[in-house]
Amino acid sequence: MTMTAFAQRLAMWQARIERALAAHLPSATESPQRLHEAMRYSVLNGGKRVRPVLIYATGSALGIAESQLDGAACAIEFIHAYSLVHDDLPAMDDDDLRRGRPTCHKAFDEATAILVGDALQVLAFQVLARDPNLPSNPAARLQLIDILATESGTTGMAGGQALDLASEGQHLSLSEVEHMHACKTGALIRASVMMAAACAREIAPESATALRRYATAIGLAFQIQDDVLDVEGDAALLGKATGADQAHGKPTYPAVAGLAAAKRRAAELHAQALEELGPLGNAAQPLREVSDWLVFRRQ
Amino acid sequence: MTMTAFAQRLAMWQARIERALAAHLPSATESPQRLHEAMRYSVLNGGKRVRPVLIYATGSALGIAESQLDGAACAIEFIHAYSLVHDDLPAMDDDDLRRGRPTCHKAFDEATAILVGDALQVLAFQVLARDPNLPSNPAARLQLIDILATESGTTGMAGGQALDLASEGQHLSLSEVEHMHACKTGALIRASVMMAAACAREIAPESATALRRYATAIGLAFQIQDDVLDVEGDAALLGKATGADQAHGKPTYPAVAGLAAAKRRAAELHAQALEELGPLGNAAQPLREVSDWLVFRRQ
What we know:
Two copies of one chain form a homodimer.
Chain A: H1 3-24, H2 33-43, H3 50-62, H4 70-87, E1 97-98, E2 101-102, H5 104-107, H6 110-130, H7 138-152, H8 157-167, H9 174-198, H10 205-232, H11 235-238, H12 244-247, H13 253-257, H14 259-276, H15 285-296
Antiparallel strand pairs in A: 1-2
């Protein structure tokens, strides 16, 4: 499969999740209109949809129909979107721009942004409890809910954000930085891959283990690349100011280990991720291509 | 059953939920410690536990073992607690005191309070997906998750808070005030009763309908009584400043209809709630007593 073919598939998945998100979000013409409008503004903003793409790519490796994955893909993107809206708040990272547009609390107001995050979080679980196209087996749905709850809770994403806030201006060791990243970003990346696996009718234990290890490696590589782009990326391409981590005194991987070491570590983790996919054979090709995209992207 | 017997049962339920909440909350000695400490501070604060009590009372009416209800009772109290932590934030109601103690963002900081709310919300769904004592039937668990998600989302609690914020300084009709209350407070009261019903092995359709109508009536009565207490309650008993609604220009029931009319409406809804319980017969006695407690309380 050429890069062009992957680019087409990526664009197809991105268009697919965009339609699914728009369909699952409450209409801005229904009460409470302003809250619904702010939810749609915060989600339908041209994001890269990394987590849904990982779900579709993992599903493709496991032979799962895309229609059975839409609900899980929406749920994880709602969780990701809520975390961005809350992280951008003045009391948190205090960011004014997100993907080239005013952040939710700038475009609306702080109270609305808090509620948008709260409402997007619960919408994620509502979709998993309800979406008629998800696997009809209730036990599989419960597993989806359990994975998403665990990976977005205090030992996952929310815990990572707490560690991140506590780390500003502190000296962290590289392993502490990696642990923070494993929670803050890695948890939802792992959730994406493992939720797709939970949608499979059956999955060999060694495949599940391979996918979990793959997700852990690629999640960390992805976050390191994010931090590298914050140092040397193009603000116009990224749609947000660069240098924000340094300005906040955040102990990122490049800040602690240096830029060259950060790039080496991302490349090493990328190679490790590809190696973990071995047991899945040729079927995992989409996941390999997604991995390249995640680590070699410029935006 | 005398009032004393009910008071004993109430105290027993309150002690029971306190133990269950403490057991389900992450330990403050585990990382991220500060977040976990703030979560425990925000939940284990001597609240009345109205929603868990409603779950146990409904369960008692339906003959469900209390041990099967603990998970649902914790889940709904975590949702209620998260909503209070977020509602108290400076960008929302800006309250410094809650049950006689500094609110979460005062005792900790705003960023932590935002994360505490986020983490309590997801913990609620994690408990419903995982608690081993809940009904083992996965379909019943999914129903619990669906009820809680729907009643706390934009057509329930979060939507009610959005309407509440939008209403400050506005003129609302009585029916608009009642709609706002039905979302903001009524939704979780209804969720409490209906989640207990979802834990029953089977329930007659007319009993489910009766319970839903009961919950809608008592939920509104409860909120009106809350607003009445904000006007004429004892701040020392309540553990928070009174007159806050008026200070915020909130169109509460007493503000729109007058204090006497508000009390009459609460009494009328209370009587209606008791009437709805008819089909459940003597078994519903605990729900009748809880209703008296909710509407005749002074704190």
